[in-house]
Amino acid sequence: MQLPDGLGLLTYSTLVHAGDTWSQMRDSLATYVPEVKARVSPDEPFGVSLRLSGKAAGVLAADPDERASLGDLLDREDLFVYTVNAFPHGPFKGASVMERVYEPDWTTEERATYTCQVADVLADLTLRAGRPGLSPSIQTAPMAFAPKVGDEAYVSRFTSQVLRVVAHLADLEARTGVRVKLAIEPEPACYLETTPQTIAYFERLRDPRSVAELARVARLPLSEAEGALRRYLGVVFDMGHQAVGFEDVRASLIALTEAGVPVFKLQAAAALWVEDLDADVVPALREFTDTIYLSQTTLQQDGGRRSFLTLGEALDAYAGDLRPTELRTHFHVPVFLEEIGPFRTTRPAVQDALRLHRELPLSDHLEIETYTWDVLPEHLKTGSITDYVTRELEFVRQELNTSG
Q1: Rounded Cα–Cα distance for residues 283 and 281 (Å)
Q2: Nearest one of 368, 325, 364, 330 to 350, comparing CA atoms
Q3: Sequence-ordered list of residues with C-beta below 8 angstroms from that of 121, at least 6 positions apart, any chain
Q4: Quick one: CA dihedral 386, 90, 295, 244, positive or negative?
Q5: How far is CA 115 from the centre of its chain?
């Protein structure tokens, strides 16, 4: 939905629905999104965040009739696509995902080709929708799972692939008039995890060697290559990810802005937070360990921090070291909840970020990404998935209406 006062477009991620194949995603799109639109935007067009797996992107990129059919569906339901989640290339529902979610990583031809296919599909959908002022965005993985990045050569390989995609985006705009933006999403346990790491990597992308490489690949004058990087490459800022790392999200967003790193998508997400961990609540926390996703967890003890790939590993470590502990874990929970069972959520970080966005619009694309409905403990689910998504959208809209 279009927010007032230049605050951008707001939607929710269809990553919450089944969508590992194009037929699954199309069914989810036709089933759930119109229900949500009827509740939150009945009289205005509703923007969609479309999850496209590698298989789905390949189908749409290769078949103009299927793209036309998708365009017809969107038109009938008064919908338009303004962002695509192209982070998970492979399966994301129904079976263990864990660190496979980062594969293929950005060192591979497969990741670059997939991203270019998504860009081509987005440009075509934007033209079909007749929305020439729309600059759609692609959400992508934070380069690689950190344990895989062993040396400088690995970083150079994925940097070259990113530059190749930026070159494709520049050519795509020249051919179609549609500017598609690539947004990298920092995440715990990845090469890009913290805001300082992200800023440092963008500085590397803008150093003379990278700019010269882009100029060569894109066949651009050197004087235009750095501008192309700023025009087509930015970040997704996931409030939950940065809160898990104990970042001050307001300060992080200001730091990105001051460093000239564009926030192409501002993502409202909340994580599970235990301010004072004690042995009595550990059994209740263990209910959140039965998940197919990584649950990167940070323990803060005596001012120091330890990071773990899963909540279960963190709880095992705590059992052997019962000092006063604060815990935050990458388990997405509904953004409208301040508490979930006996625990808190990082909703205050979401509210801080939205307050800053109200004061200083940071991005034209906003999205809620709580994809864990299917793995929430059953006793914590209330209502349908449509109810849940609607409540999240209404919460964010209300926060933006009242912030400041």
Answers
A1: 6
A2: 368
A3: 52, 57, 60, 61, 67, 84
A4: negative
A5: 14
52 token code pair: 């496209």
pLDDT in tens, 288-307: 998 888 999 999 998 899 99
Mind listing the pLDDT tens digit for each residue in 227-272? 999 999 999 999 999 999 999 999 999 999 999 999 999 999 999 9
Domain parsing of the chain, residue ranges = 9-270+345-402
Q: How many angstroms separate the CA atoms of 269 and 387, rounded?
A: 17
Q: What is the CATH number of domain 9-270+345-402?
A: 3.20.20.150
Q: What is the mean pLDDT of residues 78-91?
A: 97
Q: What residues have CB less than 8 Å from 308, skipping those under 6 apart?
A: 296, 297, 298, 299, 314, 317
pTM: 0.95
Distance of CA 156 to the CA centre of its chain: 24
Task: Decide the pairing of beta strands 9-12 and 270-277.
Answer: unpaired
